[in-house]
Write a structure and sequence with these properties.
binds erythose-4-phosphate, 42% helix, 17% strand, 5-stranded parallel sheet, alpha/beta, Ribose 5-phosphate Isomerase B, Chain: A
């Protein structure tokens, strides 16, 4: 079995944590590929949606399996990523929420706040998050399906 392909991205508020997590992911035997959408360092002041949307689109396009996005709070990255069709993204700064984001909500994108969470806790959460998978035969699947159904029924949504 091949490993997971992970996209990472951050703005300058999240780049230090993003780079730390990218190193961790590259060293993880469960990960086969890490694609870094930037920014490379704090001198690059591109706005978070420019980075997060590109990484989320890579997941939506099947070029990556999951993404880890970091900004100051994680909130802007989550809002941005959720605008990409088929993407379910959330901020999760605790172990249980990160677990449930995958097991309950089939989220492919984990967003973290570089100004909120310390690197050691973030590394622990990301390491755990890699180990979770969504069970499409679970009771959660039909709940998630309502989101997909709404999304695909655009522009008016389901009635
Ligand atoms: O959600 C947005 C992020 O936290 C970003 O890094 C900082 O955004 P701001 O500069 O608009 O506060």
């Amino acid at each position: 079995m091949t490993g997971m392909r992970i996209a990472v991205a951050a703005d300058n508020a999240g780049v230090a944590l993003k780079n730390t997590l990218a190193d961790q992911l590259r060293a993880d035997e469960r990960v086969s590929d890490v694609t870094d959408f930037g920014v490379p360092d704090e001198s690059d002041d591109r706005a978070y949606p420019l980075l997060g949307l590109a990484a989320a689109q890579a997941v939506a396009d099947g070029e990556a399996d999951r993404a880890v996005l970091v900004c100051g709070t994680g909130i802007g990255m989550a809002i941005s990523a959720n605008k990409v069709e088929g993407i379910r993204a959330t901020v999760a700064h605790d172990s249980y929420s990160a677990e449930r984001s995958v097991r309950s909500n089939d989220c492919q994108v984990l967003c973290l706040g570089g100004r909120v969470i310390g690197p050691e806790l973030a590394k622990k959460i990301v390491g755990e998050w890699l180990g979770y998978s969504f069970d499409p035969s679970s009771a959660s699947a039909e709940k998630v399906a309502h989101i997909t159904e709404f999304e695909q029924a655009a522009p008016g949504g389901v009635g």
